[in-house]
Amino acid sequence: MPDTNQAAGRPALPPGPIAGAAAWTGADMLGRSGEWMHVLDAGALAELEAAIAAHRAGGRAMGEITAESFRLPTLGRRLAAILQDLMQGKGFAVLRGLPVERWGTEDSAIAYLGIGAHFGSFRSQNAKGHLLGHVKDLGLDIGDPKVRYYQTTRELEYHTDSCDIVGLLCLKTAKSGGASRIVSSTTLYNEMLRRRPDLVEQLFHAFPTDRRGEIPPGMLPWFEVPVFSWHEGYLTAIYSGQYIRSAQANFPQEAFPACRRLTAAEHEALDMLDALSNDPALNLQIEFRPGDMQFLHNHQIFHSRTDFENWPEPERHRHLLRLWLAPRDARPLPSAFAQRYGSLTPGDRGGIVVKDTVLTFTLDPI
Q1: What pairing do the DSSP bridges indicate for beta strands 284-286 and 180-184?
Q2: In a domain, 361, yes or no
Q3: CA quadruple 161, 162, 164, 169: dihedral positive or negative?
Q4: What is the pLDDT of residue 10?
Q5: Fewer Cβ within 10 Å of end Cβ, the chain: N or C?
């Protein structure tokens, strides 16, 4: 039987509030860190060291790391359970205790890629084709329409990345600031439904979102995808308020000649979504330590970062490694995601690929 909203020409909406493990609050999660903080014990580290040694002995490139080649007999079973919780449960996890200072950047990156490979395939994170990303202040100006916020010290507003799962490995922390903040998009939907059901429906409209100059062949400088979609029994989110607003600000410049103008109600809905995201009763702030790995399911988690101040010495600057991952058993996505994800096939979707992109792994943040 067709959805009555769709039959009336309106987007499909959930039948009501959404319950379950995905509908958590930060206040609740603070007291349940044992459910999402996974400390790597001596046995896990020994397995990782053995897998790193095998990788090096085999002479393989970083791009050849797979779950099959990077064998983790016991930790691998633990990672499978964490992946299940990422995709069908809370949607986030932190693995703590990778000895990045002792192992150094290269071995730490190999271990991180090996763990990531147990979650999904690697996806390109920018027009340069970086499969191993670097979140580091490069001294760039966010006023440049091709610069992205993760390349600066600026606060990141709540957003999702263009992949199923995003991972971060902390190599070095800032002098101050730079905390990770996450919030459940399911909880945000429930709160908006309870307080302003008229506004939550606006978020099921397609919003033009700035590609920041990373334009695939045949595509426009923006993509249009609803913030919330109700598809095959899943509430799925994709959001970048900063880039929705930059698409609006660029109009009517030549680069955005036909970008749709948002209505007053849509602006109000976005403002409310941002305000709820920043509610400390709803979000969860996580202070990274060197060796922490955070994994998030983008379809149900928004993430942000506070402003930070770097150390004066360049070699001590805040530095995180990032992975975009596509699990084989990921949820189905609505057709609108194809504008951003390309293929919608689980295990082979998401990422940024433009003309002349060459997929690569690099330990150089530039």
Answers
A1: antiparallel
A2: no
A3: negative
A4: 81
A5: N
Q: Is 310 exposed, middle or buried (0-12, 13-18, 19+ CB in 10 A)?
A: buried
Dihedral sign of CA atoms 208, 213, 214, 220 in order: positive
DSSP 87-126: HHSSSEEEEE---HHHHHHHHHHHHHHHHHHTT-EE---S
Distance, CA of 171 to CA of 294 (rounded, Å): 12
Cis-peptide into 252, omega within 30 deg: yes
Q: Is residue 110 part of a domain?
A: yes
Tokens of 204: 């099921």
For residues 183 and 163, what is the distance between their CA atoms, to the nearest angstrom?
17
**Tokens 């951003």 belong to residue:** 340
Q: Of the ranges 9-18, 136-145, 222-231, which is most confident? A: 222-231
The token pair that represents 289 in the structure block: 């330590």
Residue where the block lists tokens 């602006």? 267
Distances (CA, A) of 138 to 142, 154, 318: 11, 11, 11
In a domain, residue 353? The reply is no
Indicate the pTM of the whole model: 0.92
Q: pLDDT, tens digit, for every residue of 140-188?
A: 555 555 555 555 555 689 999 999 999 999 999 988 778 899 999 999 9
- Which residue range(s) make up the domain with 182? 18-341
Residue 4 lies in a domain: no
**Residue 77: enclosing H or E segment and its boundaries?**
helix 75-88
Average confidence score pLDDT of the chain: 91
Distances from the Cα of 105 to the Cα of 20, 95, 100, 294, 322, angstroms: 39, 17, 7, 17, 13
Instruction: Tell me whether residue 184 is exposed, middle or buried, using C-beta atoms within 10 angstroms of its C-beta: 0 to 12, 13 to 18, 19 or more.
Output: buried
Number of domains in the chain: 1
Give burial (CB, 10 Å; 0-12/13-18/19+) of 287: exposed
List pLDDT tens digits, range 99-153: 999 999 999 999 999 999 999 999 999 999 999 999 987 665 555 555 555 555 5
CATH number, domain of 272, equals 3.60.130.10
